[in-house]
Amino acid sequence: MASSLPRVTYSNIGVDFSAVFARLSTSIETALAAPAELHPNLIGGAWDQAGTQYEARSPIDGKLLGRFVEAGPAEVGRAVGAARQACRGWAATPWQERVALLRRVAERLEAHKFAVAAACLREVGKSFGEAMGEVEEAVDLVSYYCDEMERNDGFRRPLQRAVAIEETSDVLRPYGVFAVIVPFNFPVALGIGMLTGALVAGNAVVLKPSPFAGLTGGWLARLCEEAGLPAGVLNLVCGGAVTGQALVDHPDVAGYAFIGSHAVGTKILRSVAAGPFNRPVIIEMGGKNPSYVTASADLDVAAEGVMRSAFGLQGQKCSSGSKVYVARAVYDDFMRRLVERTAALKIAPPLQPEVFMGPVIDENAAMRYRKACEEAGRDGKIRFGGTRLSGGVHDGGAYLQPTIVEGLAPGHRLNKDELFLPFLSVQPYDRLEDAIADGNDVLYGLTAGAYATDEAELELFLDRAEAGALYANRASGATTGAWPGVQTFCGWKGSGVAGKGGLGPYYVPQFMREQSRTIMRSGSGK
């Protein structure tokens, strides 16, 4: 049974997952043999084909995944209307019943996790470990947010009384309809995380997956439907920029949850801020995610952690470590170990467990990679990589070498911009405080990592690193690997807007607004 198998997380490297991956292999074979079908949207409890059809292809081999329906303004309007109609009844449902229903969603996801992971692998190009880890995380996200609702008694609490006959309380209440806009790289975990936060709080949801990830978006909608979610409480609209803009522009959307680029996130924020009143915009917008290797570090652990953080999922994580500062005294030794590990990575279609890197998502990403490598070769030195792979299985998608670069000026674009690519810039340093100051000198503040056994160096890192998630001495990932209830995921500066993040105790309350209630109980004498 699946429950007897070890769970894949982002930190349990070195575990024997052979039985898990054997089950996943079977699901992948089944998915590859299935015909490409039309996948409609879900609006008001009915599967809906209105809109413009488009095709989605796997980045692994270019094969057709299916046909999806891009929802235009009319379809988005119907979805928002259905959500608004369903919202009052859902908000009035006791929070305990909402929690119980969402726990059934987690049970359905657990029951189908191998099929969902196979779909995620095919449409994103994830490795076995990344795909399974994401689905396991999604199960825990639902459970954790339900736990938080219970721990806080539905976010209701009594207040002090000014007079004896006064009954006062504070309650957090839902906003209404939430638009949940999901990126391609973690379509299951981020999708289920955002929609669970909205739903458990009593909001209705219009879910828009990435146009690259309609398969998993459909899975989430069907699992919620199977679990018994009332019609209209969750609506699914596929599509790209047209669909997203229609959601942003709709006056009846009461709030937004978005994870993606800084450019798109700030555009949504400005658009909403220009409206007649404020609406919540819960956004995470990527990062640069520096790490620091000190002279006291275990260099094997550091090289492993930096490599995994930089090149896992082809560098297409908002937490990917794309810049590392290394103490000059250990620079050459560290670089040798890092290059050796990177050169040993298997890059291929992720259809076997030993593959570490699959393709990047599309040709646009490949073009950005080529431009970055050209700049790196001109302005610095490429120590490893810099080439797109070709021939045989590599001709089916955009397979890129993990690339390690040194010698770029601190202010170079490649040291400042989020690249979302398998691209790592290495910088030597003489003083750790100077390295941390330069690492902070970016738009972002999502994650940061350090490798040090010296306590003073660790304290300096923890005190001065400007990021919401800090890691130290992690072999499984220098800047990656947050897990629900274990590490929170909060973006500082240009990586977020609220000062509170996901995966932790302050996430669900962001989907609610505060209401104070005062009732005079005349004649009670109390």
Any overview of this molecule?
The structure is a single chain. The chain has 526 residues and is α/β, with parallel strands linked by helices. It contains 14 helices and 22 strands. α14 links the parallel β19 and β20. The model has no long low-confidence stretch (mean pLDDT 95).
Radius of gyration: 24 Å
In which order are the strands of the major sheet placed?
15-16-17-14-13-19-20
Beta-strand proportion: 15-25%
> Mean pLDDT score, rounded?
95
Break the fold down into its secondary structure elements and pairings.
Blueprint: H1 18-33, E1 37-39, E2 41-43, E3 46-48, E4 52-57, E5 64-70, H2 73-92, H3 95-111, H4 113-124, H5 128-151, E6 156-158, E7 166-174, E8 177-181, H6 189-200, E9 204-208, H7 214-227, E10 234-236, H8 241-249, E11 255-259, H9 262-273, E12 281-284, E13 290-293, H10 299-311, E14 323-327, H11 331-343, H12 363-379, E15 381-384, E16 403-406, E17 423-429, H13 432-440, E18 444-445, E19 447-451, H14 455-464, E20 469-472, E21 492-493, E22 512-520
Parallel strand pairs: 1-5, 8-9, 8-11, 9-10, 11-12, 13-14, 13-19, 14-17, 16-17, 19-20
Antiparallel strand pairs: 2-3, 4-5, 6-7, 7-22, 15-16, 18-21
Helix pairs in contact: 1-4, 2-8, 3-5, 3-7, 4-5, 4-7, 5-6, 10-11, 13-14
